[in-house]
Design a protein that fits this description.
ph1033 like fold, 3 helices, 20% helix
């Protein structure tokens, strides 16, 4: 299965809490999430904060009313929304582990997992090997000295 690094905006911590609680995440870029894919969440300005597993393939905004997502958006619920404001891929998920941010910079993660894009290109697809490396970071707690939170 593929892995993905998804971004939680620096000013969107409440979106993470709501999405985690409802078991759903959405992106404004169309991405082919598949059931069973590994999902890694990057808190902008902090680092990796969680790992999850996809429970569905990507749902498009045609298949899922993005206005029913659990978080408010900065533009509110206007009738007219610009194309770049619409969520294009929605994925159901189960959070496996949440942790204090693993203290890697984006460049360190990019180099360790061998991809070449910036955070603004996220979600970033990882190959199987890179996904295994990222999962190991959560298993070992490497990158920080605070306790992990196991999700049940």
């Amino acid at each position: 299965m593929a892995g993905w690094i998804l971004i939680v905006g620096a000013d969107s911590s409440e979106n993470w809490a709501l999405g985690r609680g409802d078991g759903i995440w959405a992106t404004k870029k169309s991405r082919p999430f598949k059931t069973g894919d590994d999902l890694f969440f990057w808190q902008a300005g902090s680092g990796l904060i969680a790992t999850a597993v996809a429970l569905s393939d990507s749902l498009s905004s045609a298949e899922y009313d993005y206005r029913s997502l659990p978080w408010p958006d900065r533009w509110g619920f206007r009738e007219q929304v610009r194309e770049n404001e619409i969520y294009k891929s929605i994925v159901e998920m189960r959070v496996l582990k949440e942790t204090s941010p693993l203290s890697f910079s984006w460049n360190e993660v990019r180099d360790a997992l061998d991809f070449r894009t910036g955070a603004n290109a996220a979600p970033v697809q990882l190959d199987d090997q890179a996904s295994s490396v990222a999962k190991a970071w959560f298993d070992t707690g490497f990158g920080h000295d605070q306790p992990d939170i196991e999700m049940t």
